[in-house]
Specification:
- The chain is α/β, with parallel strands linked by helices.
- It has three domains: 45-152, Beta-Lactamase; 165-321, Alpha-Beta Plaits, CATH 3.30.70; 332-588, TIM Barrel, CATH 3.20.20.450.
- The strands form four sheets. It has an eight-stranded mixed β-barrel with strand order 13-14-16-17-18-19-20-21, surrounded by five helices. The chain has a five-stranded antiparallel beta sheet with strand order 2-1-5-4-3, with helices on both faces. Strands 7-8-6-11-12 form a five-stranded mixed beta sheet, sandwiched between helices.
- The N and C termini lie far apart (124 Å).
- Residues 1-16 and 18-31 have low confidence and may be disordered.
- It binds ligand C2E and magnesium ion (2 copies).
- One magnesium ion binds at residues 367, 426, 458, 488.
């Protein structure tokens, strides 16, 4: 007896079960083992039982009787050992679970061994939620052991919840979505819609009100989204301000459209935040299963493309994915890649457009205008790539390249003995706000050692809409380098002369849109006259852009416009052509032999 006890004490419960199974399979059933095991486990946390079958008149097993157990085994049923022994399973298990237990016992008796993990269902007599059950056939009937694994199971469930749940909103996350869709997408007859929802301007709210308020807003938005979806639908937070609603069992597109409208409407209704209320709009892209994609990546990508298109077209609305959206995004991305490569390979060249002093008719400066020498497309005009360079941020790098080229050109002309005149360089709004312009120019002056009067900067009014204090500081940094500031395209933006005075701009360039009206309507002349006289009153120099006719030039002369540029004088040209103008810059432009004859 002692040897058997020691032997069983050394065995773990699963080793014990395996051993019992092996014994059973080899046909040598254990006798008295239950006694040893009960003793061995009396102090442990496993329940142990020995059960004998109860048979009907036809020798069919209809129930089982507990003939032995340890204290823990009885405790699992909320009893003392002596209360359990001698009782049948049927006196504890309700009909539904009894059927299941009897089937398992029959299987164990037949096969010799059975093991599973079991979650207590309501009505089960067990006082624990999760157990590992092991049944082994023995001489008397069955040796059963139960181990409480509720702690491990709950931990595993909690871990899986954490892995599948977004921490801020408690919504399911991308990982959960991947699992959900991998199952849901197997049924191609189940039409579905993916709504890719992006909160408009969330970044601004987050930056202005702080992350805690941002999180609150995300939680409120999540609750609202949950409140509008149907029983078969799901809402997921992908991350940031991006949510996804999955509509399953879709009858038609209209349902997706209605949901998108509803989402926009419920989020527009002010959300309660700590410091007041905030209403938000959303941009939504919709893709449909199976037509727009058959796996999660494709469906999400298609919906995201549609969302970006909605955002680009003024936000606060939804858009269904179409192949055309994909094509245009692809060509935009290709162009973006091309542009980025072009910057790395330096496929750019500067053209120069002469500026003429009206009173003397002499060349007084020039504007540097960039061109892209595309290996396949040839010469590409700036309006085809500057906006893209701006929206992608590539303008900062491209801008530095342009600045470097202009400075280098001054040095080249100087070295070849030409009298160089000021070159104005265009700096676009994004470039001005993102790049450290004064520093870039400082470094260029340091590198090329040229006189500051030879460089000017053209800025548009839109560059000066940001934080006024930092703009004034940056402009004064530029001015302290000795560089003049020109306001470009004046008249197309806010046209605030007082702002120009505050920013201490040196020169005003009247946009060419005004020039086309100049020699056609009397209002055209009135406008230009007003701009010139006000700019003069504020001490600014005036340049008229886009002069195309002699008549325009004469009117501008009569209005005391200081300088002009435009196709009437000359079109933008390459550096070597410009060198000819520079070589004769002490004569009026119309007297330069063989160059300009029509002024
Ligand atoms: P902008 O700075 O206003 O430059 C003047 C534009 O008007 C130039 O177009 C010039 O070729 C055109 N132009 C000049 N005279 C006439 C005329 O008499 N009639 C007509 N119809 N057009 C005239 P371009 O070179 O195509 O440049 C367009 C815009 O692209 C520029 O407008 C500027 O905003 C931007 N840009 C050009 N080069 C650069 C650059 O190096 N950096 C940045 N950031 N922007 C640039
Ligand atoms: Mg310009
Ligand atoms: Mg301009």
């Amino acid at each position: 007896m002692t040897t058997i006890l020691t032997f069983f004490l050394l065995l773990s419960s699963s080793a014990m079960a395996a051993y019992l199974a092996w014994k059973s399979r080899s046909g040598k059933r254990i006798s008295g083992a239950h006694e040893a095991y009960r003793l061995a486990t009396e102090m442990g946390d496993e329940g142990f039982y020995v059960a004998r079958p109860v048979k009907s008149g036809t020798d069919e097993i209809i129930d089982w009787t507990y003939i032995d157990c340890n204290e823990q085994g009885a405790a699992f049923l909320g009893l003392q050992k002596h209360d359990l022994i001698g009782k049948n399973f049927s006196s504890f298990y309700p009909a539904i679970s009894l059927k299941n237990v009897l089937e398992i016992c029959a299987c164990a008796a037949r096969e010799g061994y059975y093991e599973d993990e079991y979650e207590e269902i309501s009505g089960s007599p067990l006082k624990v939620r999760w157990v590992r059950r092991q049944f082994a056939a023995s001489k008397e009937g069955l040796a059963i052991s139960l181990k409480n694994i509720s702690g491990i199971k709950e931990y595993a469930l909690e871990m899986s919840r954490l892995v599948n749940e977004d921490a801020v909103t408690a919504l399911p996350n991308r990982k959960w979505l991947a699992e959900f869709l991998s199952k849901a997408l197997q049924d191609k007859t189940n039409k579905m819609a993916v709504l890719f929802i992006d909160l408009d301007d969330f970044k601004n709210i987050n930056d202005a009100l702080g992350h805690a308020i941002g999180d609150l807003l995300l939680r409120s938005a999540a609750m609202r989204l949950k409140s509008v979806i149907g029983m078969n639908d799901r809402v997921v937070r992908l991350g940031g301000d991006e949510f996804v609603v999955i509509l399953t069992k879709l009858a038609n597109h209209g349902e997706a459209r209605r949901m998108a409208e509803l989402v926009n409407e419920i989020l527009r209704f002010p959300l309660e935040l700590v410091k007041g209320k905030k209403s938000i709009t959303t941009s939504i892209g919709i893709s449909l299963f199976p037509s727009d994609g058959t796996d999660m990546d494709m469906l999400l990508k298609s919906a995201e493309i549609a969302m970006y298109s909605a955002k680009k077209n003024g936000k606060a609305h939804y858009r269904f994915y179409t192949q055309t959206l994909y094509e245009s995004l692809k060509s935009r991305l290709n162009l973006e890649q091309d542009l980025s490569d072009a910057i790395d390979k330096d496929q750019f060249v500067l053209f120069y457009e002469p500026r003429m002093h009206v009173a003397t008719g002499k060349l007084c400066g020039m504007e540097a205008l960039v061109r892209w020498i595309h290996p396949e497309r040839g010469l590409v005009q700036p309006l085809e790539f500057i906006p893209l360079a701006e929206s992608t941020g590539l303008i900062v790098k491209l801008g530095e390249l342009i600045i470097d080229k202009a400075f280098k050109q001054v040095v080249l002309w100087k070295n070849s003995g030409l009298p160089v005149l000021p070159i104005s360089i265009n700096i676009s709004a994004y470039q001005f706000n993102m790049g450290n312009i004064s520093r870039t120019f400082f470094e260029a002056f340091d590198k090329y050692k040229i006189s500051p009067e030879l460089i000017e900067i053209e800025l548009t009014e839109s560059a000066m809409l940001g934080d006024q204090t930092s703009i004034i500081k940056e402009l004064s940094n530029i001015r302290s380098l000795g560089v003049k500031l020109l306001i470009d395209d004046f008249g197309t933006g806010y046209s605030s002369l007082s702002q120009l005075q505050r920013f201490k701009m040196d020169t005003l360039k009247v946009d060419r849109a005004f020039l086309s009206e100049l020699d056609r309507t009397s209002e055209g002349e009135v406008f230009v006259k007003a701009i010139i006289s006000m700019a003069h009153a504020l001490g600014m120099n005036v340049v008229a852009e886009g002069v195309e006719t002699k008549a325009q030039l004469e009117i501008l002369r009569s209005l005391s416009c200081d300088e002009v540029q435009g196709y009437y004088l000359a079109r933008p040209m390459q550096a070597d052509a410009m060198a000819q103008f520079l070589a004769h810059s002490d004569s009026p432009m119309d007297a330069i032999p063989g160059i300009v004859s029509h002024i």
